[in-house]
Amino acid sequence: MPQPNHPHAPINVVQLTDAHLFADPAGTLLGLNTRGSLQHVIDQVHREQPAIDLLLCTGDLSQDASATAYRAFAEMTATLRAPARWLPGNHDQARVMAEVAQGTDLLQSVTDVGNWRIIMLDSAVVGATHGLLAPAQLAVLDQALNSASQRHSLICCHHQPVDIGCAWMAPIGLRNSDELLQRVQAHPQVRAVLWGHVHQAFEQTRDGVRYMATPSTCIQFAPGSVDFKVSEELPGYRWLRLHADGQLETGVERALDYVLQLDFNSPGY
């Protein structure tokens, strides 16, 4: 794993999430071409983040769980020239992802870079929209945290582990979030928890730990909505600067040059 040029330099991380690519390059959600919007976000990352130490891709990379879509995602993001880590979301199929990722480090669960440990957890449940950390995933987390030594930790999953204020999304979040939060509280080296799934920006600090969600690279969901509601906010990504002392800087950027044209009469999400 490449290390920062200087031992005290921050780790530059970019998160892309919920691309929902189809095997068909013309595939759309609500009239939005998901490959086109992903490319706009990638182009913006190129302009704004010239040096990336790690690219985190936190689920729903594909809408149809096709090998063709995963290969397209891999090819499109490869232009960022950064080591990448993937985890599955509820629209993904882990088996197909693993076939496409064979021979790479894309699905590596634990990555150490600089003074940080990045832990990627699979919260997807086959055939369901909600999330759950199975015993095997909790064991991965326990092992990673117990062996982290002095490294600061960033935990990533697909489903939201805390209430984000969208009533309709509460039942499709992480069902055993208490088991995750207990482990976070027991390990003070955990600095942040990061996820996708909710198609919107969210940030909250609890007991000194940052909890963060990131916009989709395609359609967005309206923050604070009681029922399913799409927002007309632009696609985006999150950047993070992970400092050697455990401090974390982060922000969300939108693809400002993207022309959003949604078709609410097209088949829904």
CATH topology: Purple Acid Phosphatase, chain A, domain 2
Question: Averaging pLDDT over every residue, what do you get?
Answer: 95
- Range of strand content: 15-25%
The helicity comes to 10-25%
**CATH architecture field:** 4-Layer Sandwich
Radius of gyration, in angstroms, nearest whole number = 17 Å
Query: What is the CATH C level class, in words?
Result: Alpha Beta
Beta strands, count: 15
- Counted up, domains total 1
Can you tell me the residue ranges where pLDDT is under 50 for at least 5 consecutive residues?
none
Termini gap? 37 Å
Largest sheet: 6 strands, mixed
Based on CA inertia axes, which overall geometry fits? globular
Q: Counting H and I runs of at least 4 residues, what is the number of helices?
A: 5
Pfam family, one: Metallophos
InterPro entries: Calcineurin-like_PHP, CNP_phosphodiesterase-III, GpdQ/CpdA-like, Metallo-depent_PP-like
Domain Calcineurin-like phosphoesterase: 12-200
Family: Belongs to the cyclic nucleotide phosphodiesterase class-III family.
List the topology elements.
Layout: E1 11-16, E2 28-29, E3 32-33, H1 34-48, E4 54-58, H2 67-78, E5 84-87, H3 94-101, E6 110-113, E7 116-120, H4 135-146, E8 152-156, H5 177-186, E9 190-195, E10 202-206, E11 209-213, E12 220-221, E13 230-231, E14 236-242, E15 248-254
